[in-house]
Amino acid sequence: MVLIFLIILTFIFNDSTYSYIELDEVHAYVFERYEKGTFDNWWLVNVPNFPKERKEIEEVEGVYLDQRGVGIYITIWPRPDYIGQVWHFQFISPKGTVIDHTLKYTGEYPYDWLYDNWIKIDEPYSGFFRQNFYGRFTGFTEITRCTTGIDGNWVLRFKEGDAVLKEWNFTLKPIDRGQITLELQSYQALPDGLEEEPNSTSGGDRIDLTVNFNKCTGNVENQSIHLKNKFNNGTGGHNHNETVECINNISRDLYSYCGDFTRWDITTDENGNGTSTFISPYYSGTVDITAYTYSGLYEGKHTKSVDIKVPGLVPMGSSIAFILYPDNEGCEHGALNHNYNQNALKAFRLLAIYWYYSDYNPNNKLLKFTAGSLPWGGKFDDGVCWSSHSSSNHHYHRQGRDCDISTRYSDGTYMNQNQFLDYIRSERLRNLHLTLGDHNSYHTHVRYSGN
């Protein structure tokens, strides 16, 4: 655990005679955590995003030794008259040690800057790094957790040239409220419920986990730690806005996007450790697993993300013999449900081509594929809400082996469904390993039964 002093600075350009900065927009924050960015550029992947859980320095009675800390965050839109301007970000320890970071603008473009250290956030010392391409920078000083002799009054200074434009004072308190560490056996699992499909086996839908609670004096026994999980909207092919955190097994019963735990509440042993097992939800997507505890008004926690998915599914793509059409135009995943196991995909494509040229289809009409699986598999909805577990709401279609084919061609005319069913059962198509599922006047359910 490290303590990072972070001053969050927003630059507003004005016409003052000296400073380029609107000081009312300059702030210092203490924060509990940060998250790394998700930029596509390779040189930005280790840069943290703006801290989500933060308080201004003036609002806290002190900074605790086990907090993530505070840093220097600046956004500057370059202008020609900034050339040569230098800003300083200083951290002054109780012993009077000055840690200084400088930023100098050298040109008209965002990349024409000089700063004293290019550094990744996970390196354990002071530095200055670039937040993004448009001139956002962060300076910080890390103080390793449990370090002694650093408590007392600290000073943070923001300077332009030699002039101090703003200064903050805060007290670093040598109070250790403890730290939770969550470790997962794996960061990917299959969705729950795949064993309900024909030719499927159970397993692969659980992740063992361990938690540890310790203080600077050592591991803590009999500490209560709780577990929860939350579905990340927009993952796995789902476009729902699900805001509910899953905090107990009742959540699992009410919301099928919730995962389960064999133990939702853990008491640590003499080594400060505890164990549980995460059971995947029925739906694919990214799930945040959090271990947390309360100590007074303080909530300590550690979160890690897992991907719930059926690996290896690929999009169906286009063909001369069929079109892709959503089975329900009001369905929130829309056309994202046309993904298949690679062998199944080949079999369904061959079925469409064979039918396209068969004597039963003399006008070479195109089939309509209406439903396969979501990009990461798992159970999906048949409307604007999560589906129930009844067979009427795509009970299968979980791992890329099922395909619904409309009884209407792409031009809206009906096929002879009985002929189509007989054709799938024919000896000629035996090597495609296709079987028939439920069918009705709207569609034919075809399943791939091979490997």
Structure notes:
The longest helix is centred in the C-terminal third of the chain and has 15 residues, at 342-356. This protein is mainly β and 451 residues long. The protein has helices at 249-254, 342-356, 417-425, and strands at 2-5, 8-10, 29-33, 53-56, 63-64, 72-75, 86-92, 98-105, 113-115, 127-132, 136-144, 152-160, 163-173, 179-184, 188-189, 206-215, 218-219, 224-231, 260-261, 265-267, 273-279, 285-295, 298-308, 314-315, 322-324, 339-340, 367-371, 402-406, 434-439, 443-448. The protein is 7% helix and 37% strand. The chain has three helices and 30 strands. The strands form seven sheets. The protein has a six-stranded mixed β-sheet, with no helix packed on it. The protein has three domains: 2-173, no CATH class; 179-308, Immunoglobulin-like (Sandwich); 314-448, no CATH class. The two termini are 47 Å apart.
- Uncertain spans, ≥5 residues at pLDDT below 50? 4-18, 34-48, 115-125, 128-133, 382-391
Overall spatial form: elongated
Major beta-sheet overview: 6 strands, mixed
**In total, how many domains does the architecture comprise?**
3
Concise structural overview:
This protein is mainly beta. It contains three helices and 30 strands. 7% of the residues lie in helices and 37% in strands.
